[in-house]
Amino acid sequence: MILTESFDEGESCWRDLADVMLAGISRVLLYGPSGTGKTYAALHHGVGASPAERLVCTEDLTSGEITGTWMPVGENRWEWREGPAIRAWRGSGGLGGRLVVDEVDRASGDALSTLLAMTDSPESARWRNPETSEWVRPGPQFSVVITTNIDDLDDIPPSLRDRFPVCIRIDRPHVSALASLSDDLRAPALAGSLGPASRRVSLRSFYAFDELRRHLGAARAAQLVFGDDVAASVLDSLAIASLT
User: Fold this and answer.
1) Which of 8, 56, 99, 111 has most Cβ atoms within 10 angstroms of its Cβ?
2) pLDDT tens digits for 184-211?
3) Distance (Å, rounded) from C-alpha 197 to C-alpha 213?
4) Would you place residue 133 in the very low, low, confident or very high pLDDT band (cuts 50, 70, 90)?
């Protein structure tokens, strides 16, 4: 996926993201339906020399999984291992890297409080290493992108939402993400639907269907990916599209 290319009118969400990344905005929230490439874009674009660190939020996510935890390294000996948020704060050479927080709406309690601290403004953010007592601050190139599949930003806690003034709704796959699909699947994948109009299909499902039908045939692939109830509708949609 390349964010610096030209965009069609219908791809305004990707143009917005490209503009934001190029402007150096360090706090961005991406929201909208699943399977459109939000995480991929967050992990790969506008990232510096350090690989992006990723967190996937669940109701059970702990503060230790964000900042770090004590780990046994031998008999009666423990060592502190920094978590992805602190590794992203440091980045390469202490300059800071990218932290990607997925499914942020699922974080709760202790984890949310820690995420608020980790995504605070550079002037306020700091954390103390419990092993060395070192105070750590985010490097100057630190950035964080959070993603969620919800459509209503009111479902994001106000305190977290306030840290991300730029919110972009990603409602379709980037055209470059469709390049590896067969020609007949690119238009429905871009539209996000195949078969019944009310059924939204993620890009992951299109990839799986395309690969399976090469080995098992379209009918079997549609059954495995989309289920018996809509497999026939999927095949009919492709057949009709091939005639136009």
Assistant:
1) 99
2) 998 888 887 777 665 778 889 999 999 9
3) 22
4) very high
